[in-house]
Amino acid sequence: MPASRTSLRRGLAAAAALPLLAMAATACGYGSQARDDRTSEVAAVGRKLSADTVRIGYFPNLTHATALVGVHEGLIQKELGGTAIKPQAFNAGPSAIEALNGGSLDIGFIGPSPAVNGYVKSQGRNLRIISGSASGGVKLVVDPDRIKTPDDVRGKRIATPQKGNTQDVAFLNWIAEKGWKVDAESGKGDVSVVRTDAKITPDAYKSGSIDGAWVPEPTASKLVAEGAKVLLEEAALWPGGKFVITNVVVSQTFLKEHPDVVEAVLRGTVRTNAWINANPEKAKAAANAALKAETGKELPPEVIDRAWPGIRVTDDPLAATLRTQSEWAVRAGLIDEPDLDGIYDLTPLNKVLRAEGRPEVSDAGLGAP
User: Fold this and answer.
1) 216 in Cβ contact with 18 (< 8 Å)
2) Which of 11, 102, 216, 240 is the most buried (most CB within 10 A)?
């Protein structure tokens, strides 16, 4: 980064840090916004299933590419026929879990840590993970003027999207493995963990109020476009480079009352993922168009071209990695030791996969009885 720009950015830090972080605290609350005043962009046509509508929630992140492409390109709606999708956009997993548990959302694309937390808080009564959606796409990006090696992270201010979300838990675990101490509730310690809404993170970085971020795409590549450098890709920490970043989660009530709708949505996600993998360039353009529809802006080429290759859509929930991530949350003190028996119900997904001539996927022994 040019020295003059660095000086300017640091000069703005003192003035900008407090309002930015105040905005972040407001935006990251469990009441963070969900846009729920839309019906499906693709008209529902054909035979209606057992529900008039299905409320599907997801984030305007590339790690939610299955939802972005599947909803906005009509691939999921095609399988639903006359049952309309009502999409809802969320900023982070805990707020989406709150909507699922509160009955205002039927199906959500959600990270593993909020899914575990929501399942435990409801004592296993309110949700089920029914499919995977994405792996990868998470990076630790930093200011190269202040952080050149992993050890330099100590004493710095690093953003995560929200307390207890998947990236927050992963970063807290990485800190612990370095032998450093951080209070998970406050984020204070040897590293300052600054919970910052994804919309605010790039401006927080530009102002100098954070020194880096452990974030999913496209936020990571937005920071790189502002001069940040990738210090670490989370995939490098996992065997085979695979770890679940996004699952498909359903309200147990909705699953029980509308199994045909759930199966149709899963058929749509499976076919969407197959289309994304077969048409990566078209899928990238479709995801970017969806982001523009959700946020009002598409990603510039230098951002999406860097971000897209690191994300792998997958039907497999990679259940064994969820178990690991829940152990990290326990060690961080964010949750008590969870009983995860029954968190998965992959029966409808495996039915869809068999019909598509695809192999079944495993729940790692955590399936519903």
Assistant:
1) no
2) 216
Task: Look up residue 261 and give its two tokens.
Answer: 């709708």
DSSP letter at 299 equals: P
Mean pLDDT of 113-120: 89
Q: Tens digit of pLDDT for each residue in 143-190?
A: 999 999 999 999 999 999 989 888 999 999 999 999 999 999 999 999
Q: What is the pLDDT of residue 35?
A: 45
Provide the 10 A C-beta neighbour count for residue 94: 25
Residue 87, beta-bridge partner list:
56
Q: Name the residue with tokens 């990270």.
A: 111
Contact assessment for residue 273 and residue 314, using Cβ atoms and an 8 Å cutoff: yes
Secondary structure in 3-state letters for the chain: CCHHHHHHHHHHHHHHHHHHHHHHHHHCCCCCCCECCCCCCCCCCCCCCCCCEEEEEECCCHHHHHHHHHHHCCHHHHHHCCCEEEEEECCCHHHHHHHHHHCCCCEEEECHHHHHHHHHHCCCCCEEEEEEEEEECEEEEECCCCCCCHHHHCCCEEEECCCCCHHHHHHHHHHHHCCCCECCCCCCECCEEEECCCCCHHHHHHHCCCCEEEEECCHHHHHHHCCCEEEEEHHHHCHHHCCEEEEEEEEHHHHHHCHHHHHHHHHHHHHHHHHHHHCHHHHHHHHHHHHHHHHCCCCCHHHHHHHHHHEEECCCCCHHHHHHHHHHHHHHCCCCCCCCCCCECCHHHHHHHHHCCCCCCCCCCCECC
Instruction: State the Cα–Cα distance between residues 329 and 219, nearest whole angstrom.
Output: 23
DSSP category for residue 194 = E
251 membership: H or E segment, kind and range:
strand 244-251
